[in-house]
């Protein structure tokens, strides 16, 4: 089944420049229906307000709610748990990756990353596009 | 020590004075002081050799502690918490702000490049897209540097709390050292090293226009 590039994508990061980078890279991949949140709490509120998001791309290191806390909330919510969740973070220790996997992450990208890696990881969870 | 009733009375009286002044917080230095006062009097003649040895050790320890306090106070840990650490944190914040601003400017330029893609041929459009992608990828440095700087700031905050504990413990001694400093340090001659201030924070340096005006005043 072809990937619907009109799907709503939620990008979550407390650094405005990273949100802008992600938005631009997603636009280059033709994903233009992008919403932003600056921390896990705001992201969760947006997800619960409208549960038709097709993908979540989130940083880990945010306050007050971190990316992994957001992931656990999403996976614990019957209305949200189906949404693919990609962690994009500078946290690169094996224990981070293991913790994210145990929490139900769909894929994991380490910063700094390039456009090809982003596309590849998105394709691995959404299907080729 | 308590073999001589006269000494016992003296000790009890001195201990009573200390208790009144310091409550239960009687430090080793105060004990050393007490012993020194006792030893200055005639009481020392009646002490056993063992007791005398103990008194000497406590006096030495008390002197050592006093000297150590004075040395630590002379290092001016209060200047670390009041001046150096806050200044370092401010400079680091300025780095994050400046790099964020520069990154946004670079991305403005990349977005402008992308906006002309549709008005050029396919080959050139591809080149422009690749160039702008490289720019966006490179700009993620600002996120990483920002996180690293935040780690440094947290470390500085930890150091500051430890040094503050030191300042609180040695408050009196630090005040004594500060009182001995020359009052008008600003009147010292300015050296070349004093002129090496580095970049100024927003609102603290002078603009190019102001520099040009200053230079014109010399003409």
Notes on the protein architecture:
The complex is a heterodimer of chains A (129) and B (219). In chain A, helix 2 runs parallel beside helix 3. The model of chain A has no long low-confidence stretch (mean pLDDT 94). Helices cover 43% and strands 19% of the residues of chain A. The termini of chain A are close together. Chain A has 5 helices and 5 strands; from the N terminus they run βαβαβαβαβα. Chain B is mostly helical and 219 residues long. Chain B is built from 8 helices and no strands. The termini of chain B are far apart. In chain B, 10% of the residues are buried.
Q: Profile the largest sheet of chain B.
A: none
Task: Write down how many β-strands of chain B occur, each being a DSSP E stretch of 2 or more residues.
Answer: 0
The quaternary state of the protein chains shown equals: heterodimer
- The helix count of chain B comes to 8
Instruction: Please report the two chains with the greatest interface, counting residues with C-beta closer than 8 angstroms to the partner's C-beta.
Output: A-B, 17 and 20 residues
Q: How many H/I helical runs of chain A?
A: 5
Overall mean pLDDT of chain B? 79
Portion in helices of chain B: over 70%
Protein structure class of chain B: mainly alpha
Give a brief rundown of this model:
The complex is a heterodimer of chains A (129) and B (219). Chain A is of the alpha/beta class and 129 residues long.
Keywords:
heterodimer, A: 129 residues, five-stranded parallel β-sheet, 5 helices, B: 219 residues, mainly alpha, 74% helix
List the helices and strands and how they pair.
The complex is a heterodimer of chains A (129) and B (219).
Chain A: E1 8-12, H1 16-28, E2 34-37, H2 40-49, E3 53-58, H3 67-76, E4 85-89, H4 94-103, E5 107-110, H5 115-126
Parallel strand pairs in A: 1-2, 1-3, 3-4, 4-5
Chain B: H1 5-22, H2 28-40, H3 49-74, H4 77-115, H5 122-139, H6 141-169, H7 171-179, H8 208-218
Helix pairs in contact in B: 2-3, 3-7, 4-5, 4-6
